[in-house]
Amino acid sequence: MPHVLTRSLDRSATLFVIVVAACGVLIPLSNLLLPAGSMFQVPTYLVALFGKYVCYAILALAIDLIWGYCGILSLGHGAFFALGGYAMGMYLMRQIGTRGVYGNPILPDFMVFLNYPKLPWYWNGFDMFWFAALMVVLVPGLLAFCFGWLAFRSRVTGVYLSIITQAMTYALLLAFFRNDFGFGGNNGLTDFKDILGFNVQIETTRGALFALSCLSLIIGFLICRAVVTSKLGKVLIAIRDAESRTRFLGYRVESYKLFVFTLSACMAGVAGALYVPQVGIINPSEFAPANSIEAVIWVAVGGRGTLVGAALGAIVVNYAKTYFTSGPLAPYWLFMLGAMFILVTLLLPRGIVGTFNAWWEPWKAQRISANAESAAREDGVSEPNPAE
Amino acid sequence: MLAKVLRRNVRALPFALLLVFTTLLPALAGPFEDAVAKFANDEYSDTEEAVDALATSTNPLAYTIVSALQDGRLMADPETKKVYVTQPDGKNIDALTGAPVASIPDSATAVRLNNKLRRHVDAALGGLTLQSPDPAIRIQAAQSVFKTHDEAMLPAVDSALQKETDKGAKLAFNEARAAILLFKADATDVEKLEAINTIKARGDQEALALLTGLSGEQSAAIAHAAAAATAAIQRNLALWSVLQNAWYGLSLGSVLLLAAIGLAITFGVMGVINMAHGEMVMLGAYTTFVVQQTIRTSFPGLFDYSLLIAVPLAFIVAGAIGILIERSIIRFLYGRPLETLLATWGLSLVLQQLVRTIFGPTNQEVGNPSWMSGAFDVGLITITYNRLWILCFTLAVFAILLAMLRYTSLGLEMRAVTQNRRMAASMGIATSRVDALTFGLGSGIAGMAGVALSQIDNVSPNLGQGYIIDSFMVVVFGGVGNLWGTLIGAFTLGIANKFLEPVAGAVLGKIAILVLIILFIQRRPRGLFALKGRAVEA
Fold it and tell me: Is B84 within 8 Å of B93 (Cβ atoms)?
């Protein structure tokens, strides 16, 4: 374990973990402890907003893991995110109990409204948090496993995979819009009250959820780092760069892909589960193919195959979205988003972090080698001289 | 009318008597005049008698009066005992003569109705329309009698049948008569058997409803014949519903093919994944809108030709934008399909927002030229002209494209470049020019698709988004790089969709199709008609 940690945590990774941890502690504390109106006090609405960004960052990490390191461009990751969100939403719905508009102790409001005689079987167990938490990981994971098992085994790759993942999320979108599907149809699940007995609206719960999101981001990041720096990770990169050659070398490409795809879907599910209580609603529009593609552009902007960049990209793009769509520039946001897609792919294919690394690495390498040289001189140990 | 009555009486009566007659007109005239006069009393019992009298009247004004009564437009003046009809357009006429009246006296009030009277009015209207001069209205009236099979209508139907000369109306009256006889308690078995045969020959949903509505107390022969007829009609209906679904499927397939055909060029032949393809369709639809707007304001006479003008224009507009996109974005991304996908998605956002900014986010109204609107019946299925024209247009575009790829030098160069780019370049083909033209061709065809789709879909900035996933499904299902595959893929998906819809519902049917395609791609990752080759990675 310590070995895995030291291997995963290079300098930039450590920096990332420290920054996220600091945010996770300081932002809720400043919100709760400092008096309102103070310069350093973070208002509650910003805590919820930042919490949303952190969830998006986890989703971006999940996409970067498969796209950046294994070359699988999924245009349906929003589906896994939404499924995790729905699992959490179902738990939250069942916590409402008799406080709903219709006061039914078992059935959520929309089921009373739609004349459901009893709870559909797949809603059983969601009154228990541990069960819901398990489903948050299992449902997206299982879907990804089945989907990936079929797709990778028959060697569906590249754009074909992208298109059928998009079809998958589109099919789910249509399904969840249906009232008789048992997930609240068009309106989705909302009007949550409690999570684990705490009111989801109050500041302390929001702060705790934010801290928990940051913790999940750190854990997700460490898992991804552990995967990509392992031998497994090297095989994944080999698959990304030359799939057929890797297969001919004797690796079972589909097993590697399936593993990483499922892991990524589970992470997306967790992100969705953390997203729902902080945003307060989950509805079928989360399945929209456009959402999944937008998540891909976060990764592209931040820097594909860098993990840190993916998280950074998610936060930067979403901050920009919030900033522009709430201001007078709102009609131009889609122009900007579209231009971002085009310009990043054309001019900045490595993203912010990737480009930064490309400048930074040669300079760093030069400095390291210079340091090594001078250190070697000071120690009086020089290169073995065959002449001596 | 009054003039006619007078003229008839002039021959029979001396002038002096005529003078007396005109003053006593309401009392002495025929049943029509009697009936109309009764309305003036505005008593329920009188009104009832009047309506029943009008129901059997042959006077062409009878229908106008009874329908006015139904709508509360029949005005009676209790002082002068005169009755007026306010026409739906606001003009007033004298109910007795039909002569226009400048204004109705203030003392006149609408003749009142109660529920019992309303039933009489409905029955009378049904009978009166049977004698309408317009055969289409007579057929409609006969159809409504067929549905209600009211025994009281039998004399009216019989008399109408005797006078009838129109073939279609005659058939409708015969069917209506059969329906009445079938339910008439004192009709003989022979009459009923004949009636069942007539209804069986009609063979549609209403005939089925009529036969299944036949209650138990019938003789064995009748019950048997009715059961046999029901079974025959059900078989007939099942056959027609298959045909109907097949037609809907062909129609949907043609729309899918039209949307996917351009993609079959850019994605199928060139291997460029263009997520902005739907927006090319949308631009084509907006071109149609602009053309129609121009025609409406400047050359209203040309409206029927608007689509013929829009088709080449949409091809040029979308094609030119396509070439621009290829030159400015896509050519830098050849060999990087995933990046192309993202860039063109961004482009689609920009184009949508651009159109939204220029034309507004709401649906634009694109009209149907006269030759595109309307429908005709083939047996029990209805075929609308716009769907039929779209099917023809699609097949024409497909045939032209196929011929172009096969017989023109540009087509030859396109095929050469897609098969082996470097070899083609060595043979002196300007590959980058061919790339731009191919992409322009695919986009231009998408633009022409937009002209056709503007006739059946809402023209809004989101028009293209609805088609993009379906188009990709068609191309991937049919097999990349094969136009015939696209054709078969589109029609297969269209027909499968329409046959699943009645079973599973529209949304579930669509989901089922998506799931089936996803599973199909697992079996045949390169589609129905894959290009065979030795390359490991395409």
Answer: yes
Q: Are B97 and B143 members of one domain?
A: no
Helix (H, G, I), strand (E, B) or coil at A165: helix
* Residue B289 to residue B367: CA distance in whole angstroms: 9
Higher pLDDT, A383 or B349: B349
> Among partner residues B333, B353, B357, which is closest to A345 by beta-carbon distance?
B333
Q: With contacts defined as CB-CB under 8 Å, which chain A residues touch B345?
A: 293, 341
Task: Examine residue B226 and state whether it is found in any structural domain, yes or no.
Answer: no
A338 touching B (Cβ < 8 Å)? yes
Question: In the predicted model, is pLDDT for residue A51 greater than 60?
Answer: yes
Q: Which of A151, A162, A163 sits opposite B522 (nearest CB)?
A: A151
Residues B303 and B354 in one domain: yes
Alpha-helical regions (H) of B134-188: 135-148, 154-163, 167-183
Query: Does the pLDDT value for residue A388 go beyond 60?
Result: no
CA atoms within 13 A on the CB side of B285: 31
Show the low-confidence residues of chain B (pLDDT under 50).
1, 6, 10, 12-28, 534-538
Smallest CA-to-CA distance from B274 within B230, B320, B359, B333 is with: B333
Farthest-apart Cα atoms in chain A, separation: 94
Q: Which tokens belong to A307? A: 């993990």
Higher pLDDT, A215 or A110: A215
Range with the poorest average pLDDT among A203-207, A252-256, B331-335, B379-383: B379-383
Summarised one tens digit per residue, pLDDT across range B65-113 is: 887 888 888 888 877 778 888 877 777 888 777 788 877 777 778 888 8
Chain-chain contact of B346 with A160 (C-beta, under 8 angstroms): no
Structure tokens at A224: 């991804």
Beta strands in B177-252 (DSSP E): none
B510 and B405 both lie in a single domain:
yes
Q: Which residues of B touch A67 (CB under 8 A)?
A: 338
Q: Which of residues 85-144 of A touch B (CB under 8 A)?
A: none
Which tokens sit at B519?
């599973």
The contacts of residue B173 (CB under 8 Å, 6+ apart) are B130, B138, B142, B157, B160, B161, B164
pLDDT for B16 equals: 46
Distance CA B398, CA B536 (A): 31
> Cα B9 vs. chain centroid, distance in angstroms?
52
Same domain, B452 and B476: yes
In this structure, the answer to whether residues B31 and B88 fall within a common structural domain is yes
DSSP string over B425-489: HHTT--HHHHHHHHHHHHHHHHHHHHHHHTTTS-BSTTTTHHHHHHHHHHHHHH-TT-HHHHHHH
Return residues 220-239 of A near B (CB < 8 Å): none
CB contact under 8 A, A340 and B347: no
Domain match, B39 and B112 both: yes
Tokens (6 digits) for A29: 């504390």
The three-class DSSP label of residue A363 is: helix
Number of structural domains (chain B) is 3
A166 touches chain B (CB under 8 A): yes
User: Which of B145-177 are b and which e, b meaning 16 or more Cβ less than 10 Å from the residue's Cβ?
Assistant: bbebbbeebbebbeebbeebeeeebbbbbbbbb
Closest residue of chain A to B348, computed from CA coordinates: A338
Closest-CA residue to B452 (of B266, B252, B249, B284): B284
Structure tokens at B405: 């790829």
Tell me, yes or no, if the pTM score tops 0.90: no
Query: CB distance B346–A164 less than 8 Å?
Result: no
Q: A138 to chain B, minimum CA–CA distance in Å?
A: 21
Nearest to B250 by CA among B137, B381, B148: B381
Domain range for B36 = 2-118
Q: Which residue from A minimizes the CA distance to B536?
A: A244
Residue with tokens 């003989």: B188
